[in-house]
Structures are given as structure tokens and as C-alpha cells.
């Protein structure tokens, strides 16, 4: 399954290189069809998918606002940075909604368990990011642990999904996307933390190509990959419902 997935990704990569505009138009048509056409059959709820899109948009909007207004004053910079971290927490937590809900929609106990856990963890992380009392140095470990905990909490539902639906190609397909998403986020975080490439050639990447820009590109790539996984979940559940569960 994974070999077939990566062969498909390589073929898509060459298609983008040959005619990027045609690829974008075709991809948009397919996305619209995957979202609307199944509604004529047996529609399932879309709120988890829209919650993820809302979290992604809030994260990118908070980041854009932070970069736009941080030069105003020291106090506004402090506020904008806290909002930026809250946006990251919102993106991470809402990213779990589509895979958890659509994987376990026919198993309410595990669905509510995983959704409840990530929601509480996400709310706690957002509060810690926004409340001034938690910005003191002694709470740095708590802040970092909450973000790390949100990321690692995705391992359990993904493994659980694979165990339950090992015979389903959609389970492998979505897992491939989720692994790719993790790779994008992981590389982005590594580049951001190590300040590559500007640490190798100081002054050469002050305008374009520095680590923070590359980090944002990889975050968008990860969010788009997760979006594609969400479309697979929707198509799977729209067509099959709870059959085979």
C-alpha cells in the first residue's frame, strides 16, 4: 500500500513540473467534486473537516497579523507573539478532528475519548499561550510540554485506526498523508530551530530564503497534505458509511 502511495506521489510531482496550472485546476475540480457530489448519496457530517479548515485559517491569519503588527511596539509584539502561538495550538488540535471523527465515527466511545482528550489539551495550550501569567520563564517547560504532547497524542489514534481498518485501502492512504504531514512539520520545526540556512551564510538570506520563511512554506505544505487526507476520509465515509466496522 505504501509503495503504491509513494509511486502516486512521484507521478503527481512530475505532473506539477510539466503543467502546474493544469494540475491546480484539475485538483480544485476534484476537491469540489469530493465535497459536493457525495452529498447527493449518503452525506455524513462535515463539521470536523470544517473545524480543521477553521483552525488552519486562524493559525495563518494569526501568523500574518503577528508579522504585520509586531514592528509597532514592544507591547504589541508581546501580544502578537502570544496570539501566534495560540494559532499554532489551534491548528494542531483541530488537525485531529477529521482523522479521529471519521476513523471512529462508528465507535462512539473511542471517538469521544480521542476528541475530548485533544480538545482539552488544545484549550489548555491556547490558554497557556495567551495568559500573561504563563509567559514567565519558569513555565517554559510546561508550554513546550503541552505543544509536544499535542503532537505525540496523534500516534495512538493513527495506530488504532490501522489496527481496526488494516484491510481498508483508505486507512493506508490517509496514514501515508499523515506521515507526510508529520515530515513537513518536523523538517519545518528543525529548520526553524537550527536557523538554516542563514547560520551558514549570515546576511545572504535576510530578504528571502531564510529559515522562518522556509518554516512557513513547510507548515502550509503540511496543512495542505492534511487537507488531502481529509478528502479521502470524507469520500470513504460518504460511500461506505459504517459498513465493515
Could you describe the 3D structure shown?
This protein is mainly α and 245 residues long. The protein has a single domain (44-240), classed as Rhopdopsin 7-helix transmembrane proteins (Up-down Bundle), CATH 1.20.1070. Helix content is 77%, strand content 0%. α1 (2-18) crosses α2 (20-36), α6 (108-130) runs antiparallel to α7 (140-152) and α9 (169-194) runs antiparallel to α10 (211-240). The protein starts with a helix and ends in a 5-residue tail after the last helix. The model has no long low-confidence stretch (mean pLDDT 82).
Brief summary of the model shown:
The chain is mostly helical and 245 residues long.
Helix content: over 70%
CATH C-level class is: Mainly Alpha
Number of discrete domains: 1
| Rough outline | globular
CATH architectural group: Up-down Bundle
Main β-sheet description: none
Key words describing this protein structure:
245 residues, mainly alpha, Rhopdopsin 7-helix transmembrane proteins, 10 helices, 77% helix
Walk me through the topology:
Blueprint: H1 2-18, H2 20-36, H3 47-69, H4 74-95, H5 97-104, H6 108-130, H7 140-152, H8 155-164, H9 169-194, H10 211-240
Amino acid at each position: 500500500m505504501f509503495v503504491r502511495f509513494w509511486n502516486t506521489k512521484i507521478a503527481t510531482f512530475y505532473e506539477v513540473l510539466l503543467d502546474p496550472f493544469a494540475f491546480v485546476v484539475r485538483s480544485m475540480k476534484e476537491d469540489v467534486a469530493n465535497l459536493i457530489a457525495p452529498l447527493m448519496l449518503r452525506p455524513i457530517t462535515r463539521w470536523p473537516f470544517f473545524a480543521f479548515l477553521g483552525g488552519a485559517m486562524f493559525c495563518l491569519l494569526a501568523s500574518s497579523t503577528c508579522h504585520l503588527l509586531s514592528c509597532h511596539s514592544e507591547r504589541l509584539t508581546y501580544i502578537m507573539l502570544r496570539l501566534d502561538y495560540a494559532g499554532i495550538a489551534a491548528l494542531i488540535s483541530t488537525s485531529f478532528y477529521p482523522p479521529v471523527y471519521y476513523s471512529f465515527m462508528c465507535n462512539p466511545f473511542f471517538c469521544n475519548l480521542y476528541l475530548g482528550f485533544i480538545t482539552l489539551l488544545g484549550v489548555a495550550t491556547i490558554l497557556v499561550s495567551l495568559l500573561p501569567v504563563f509567559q514567565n520563564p519558569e513555565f517554559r517547560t510546561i508550554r513546550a510540554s503541552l505543544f509536544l504532547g499535542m503532537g505525540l497524542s496523534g500516534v495512538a489514534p493513527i495506530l488504532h485506526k490501522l489496527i481496526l481498518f488494516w484491510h481498508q485501502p483508505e486507512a493506508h492512504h490517509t496514514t501515508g498523508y499523515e506521515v507526510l504531514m508529520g515530515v513537513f512539520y518536523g523538517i519545518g520545526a528543525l529548520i526553524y530551530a537550527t536557523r538554516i540556512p542563514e547560520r551558514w551564510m549570515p546576511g545572504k538570506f535576510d530578504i528571502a530564503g531564510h529559515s522562518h520563511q522556509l518554516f512557513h512554506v513547510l507548515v502550509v505544505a503540511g496543512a495542505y497534505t492534511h487537507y488531502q487526507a481529509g478528502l479521502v476520509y470524507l469520500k470513504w465515509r460518504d460511500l461506505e458509511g459504517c459498513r465493515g466496522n
